């Protein structure tokens, strides 16, 4: 079977000295331990250890060969979004990262593809950068699920999504900057509890606000990590919509009726979860996503789908490759 992994990340081997350039602090730094291992530091504190798979295209391609991945679509690690910074700083970082991403693809641009990053705190700048990147060879854009206190129903963000639809830029929405970290200081709980909740919040922000009613159906949008909590709690949302007018105030149709407006990836790690995800979303709305090369990602990419006894061969092929090929226009 052909495999397209549409959710993978990169992190450059080094970053420009933006702290000196902009006379500001808190920029991520990469400190190398050896040729294959490094740490990401923020304000001198460890954020995450990484390996050379983040920045070494040959290592990435070797892993793809080992696992039978035909195409991988990579995007920057969300800690690099920089939405809290002045727009000129965030744009400088985004433009540099976007050019670096295309460089990472050059060893085999038929197999390595990239999503761009944009400064979502300034919608005009974000629209201009995604247009530049799509013209330069990126296959879509990754954005965070919120910008400060603004959820996806913010009118500026809706304007950006409309622009993406207009120029044919598929959108991957990735959770980041998780809620209530002070209540989850240990055990990676922000990633295990808050991250799925962040994704559910972002999907419901588009549905319950009526944003999907204003956005064109040509918009291609995918939510990472199997849609977070959303697919498993949609019955609760429908029930609330039916019985509470404050839930349906801006949403004219049953929330579950909007599930044909977006896609999710397959990163759910359990056969029962995958079966429910496919039943809920439909086989045409799930795409293979691994979260490579991080430890919370699927380590044998595609194995959950390929080995699933409850999915037929045609469904597996749709999830493993065909849906992503259509979503990202890879057949053209």
Could you provide a short overview of the structure?
Monomer. The chain is 39% helix and 16% strand.
Structural description of this entry:
The protein is of the alpha/beta class and 332 residues long. The protein is 39% helix and 16% strand. The strands form two sheets. The protein has an eight-stranded parallel β-sheet. Strand 7, helix 5 and strand 8 form a beta-alpha-beta unit. The protein is globular, with a radius of gyration of 19 Å. The model has no long low-confidence stretch (mean pLDDT 97).
Identify the notable features of this structure and list them briefly.
zinc; ACMSD; metal ion binding; alpha/beta; eight-stranded parallel sheet; TIM Barrel; 332 residues; 16% strand; Metal_Hydrolase; decarboxylase; 11 strands; three-stranded antiparallel sheet
β-strand number: 11
Envelope shape: globular
Low-confidence stretches: none
The CATH superfamily turns out to be Metal-dependent hydrolases
**Secondary-structure-derived class:** alpha/beta
Find the CATH topology.
TIM Barrel
Binned, the helix content reads: 25-40%
Number of helices: 11
- Helix and strand pattern: EHEEEHEHEHEHEHHEHEHEHH
How large is the share of residues in beta strands? 15-25%
CATH architectural arrangement: Alpha-Beta Barrel
Largest sheet: 8 strands, parallel
Mean pLDDT: 97
Read across the widest sheet, the strand sequence of neighbours is 1-5-6-7-8-9-10-11
Radius of gyration: 19 Å
Broad CATH class: Alpha Beta
Number of domain modules:
1
Note the quaternary state here.
single chain
């Amino acid at each position: 079977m052909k495999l397209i992994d549409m959710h993978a990340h990169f992190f450059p081997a080094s970053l420009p000295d933006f702290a000196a350039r902009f006379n500001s602090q808190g920029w991520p730094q990469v400190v190398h331990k050896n040729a294959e291992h490094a740490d990401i530091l923020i304000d001198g504190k460890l954020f995450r250890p990484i390996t050379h798979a983040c920045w070494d295209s040959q290592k990435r391609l070797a892993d793809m060969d080992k696992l039978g991945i035909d195409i991988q679509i990579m995007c920057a690690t969300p800690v690099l979004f920089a939405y809290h910074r002045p727009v000129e700083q965030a744009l400088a970082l985004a433009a540099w990262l976007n050019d670096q991403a295309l460089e990472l693809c050059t060893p085999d641009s038929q197999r390595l593809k990239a999503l761009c990053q944009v400064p979502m705190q300034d919608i005009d700048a974000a629209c201009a950068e995604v247009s530049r990147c799509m013209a330069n060879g990126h296959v879509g854009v990754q954005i965070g699920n919120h910008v400060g206190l603004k959820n996806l129903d913010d009118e500026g963000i809706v304007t950006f999504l409309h622009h993406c639809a207009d120029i044919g830029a598929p959108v991957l929405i990735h959770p980041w900057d998780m809620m209530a970290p002070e209540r989850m200081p240990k055990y990676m709980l922000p990633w295990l509890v808050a991250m799925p909740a962040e994704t559910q919040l972002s999907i419901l922000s588009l549905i319950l606000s009526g944003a999907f009613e204003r956005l064109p159906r040509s918009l291609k949008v995918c939510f990472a990590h199997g849609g977070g909590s959303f697919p498993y709690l949609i019955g609760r949302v429908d029930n609330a919509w039916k019985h509470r007018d404050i839930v349906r105030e801006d949403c004219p149709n049953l929330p579950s009726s909007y599930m044909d407006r977006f896609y999710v990836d397959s990163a759910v790690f359990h056969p029962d979860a995958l079966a429910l995800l496919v039943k809920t979303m439909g086989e045409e709305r799930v795409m293979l996503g691994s979260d490579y090369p991080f430890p919370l990602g699927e380590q044998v990419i595609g194995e959950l789908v390929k080995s699933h006894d409850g999915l037929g061969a045609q469904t597996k092929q749709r999830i493993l490759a065909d849906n992503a090929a259509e979503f990202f226009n890879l057949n053209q």
